[in-house]
């Protein structure tokens, strides 16, 4: 995937740089459960909110860079459909959008080639995996499948593990699992670790994203602890939400999780990815999260290897903003309705 492309602004003719190229890194190998790394860690919500408010002041990425940031945001999107009425046709349309997320005149106006702009992955329910795999053949775009009884996860563990293995057998390269909220709420960290380690083993070569469903974990201290347990059990990514909770991705929750990522990385040397998900619809939100990643973890976390957005309806606004950048005009919101 090209990440160093210089983007030519259509209206100004200036060259603007894309973020630094990403380096591939070894998978998180996990470690034995070590509750000392999180048991006494308390997260102060007011302090987390204050820190996020200071980040808001840095969110006004200068106009000349904004298009590059938004193109990079597209590269980090897990383009998602997780609806009860999903069909093969809908998944095929989504995959066509994943291959070409921007209209040709926008790509050309930015001075890019079509192959420069693809999404990070397509994320679907398990039975939609074969349709997505077929539709994305040859594109290099991985298919992510939710599994383990998404979104609630209230199924026997043996069935949750079998669902992972089934989705992998269908061609999913990434598996978005949900944790048992009860185990986090009762702070039964050993049981949570054991479940997650079994899920990681069931994933095999497929990368495991552990959805914490943070809107249901009550405290940021629980969010920090659950993040640590997931990473110790070998998660490749930790992810905020299913998109189905009452509260999904927020910046204070994300700050808590990326601080856990940083602490785990400093203790073990392992790099784990982060995926905020649920409820993100606007391009400016994408910039806000990218700023958080850059400020807290550095430019390496601006790449799809280590950062993804889980979003079913944010790409449309990003495309709209980029079209404005290229043409100086806004299209109606329904023009870029898909995704
Ligand atoms: O993992 C992705 C989420 O389910 C997407 O949530 P959303 O539909 O609110 O964008």
Automatic annotation (TrEMBL):
One of its GO terms (biological process) is carbohydrate catabolic process. Pfam families: DeoC (PF01791). It catalyses: 2-deoxy-D-ribose 5-phosphate = D-glyceraldehyde 3-phosphate + acetaldehyde. The keyword Lyase applies. This is Deoxyribose-phosphate aldolase. Transmembrane segments: none annotated. Belongs to the DeoC/FbaB aldolase family. DeoC type 2 subfamily. Pathway: Carbohydrate degradation; 2-deoxy-D-ribose 1-phosphate degradation; D-glyceraldehyde 3-phosphate and acetaldehyde from 2-deoxy-alpha-D-ribose 1-phosphate: step 2/2. Keywords: Lyase, Schiff base. Residues 1-12 have a biased composition (Polar residues).
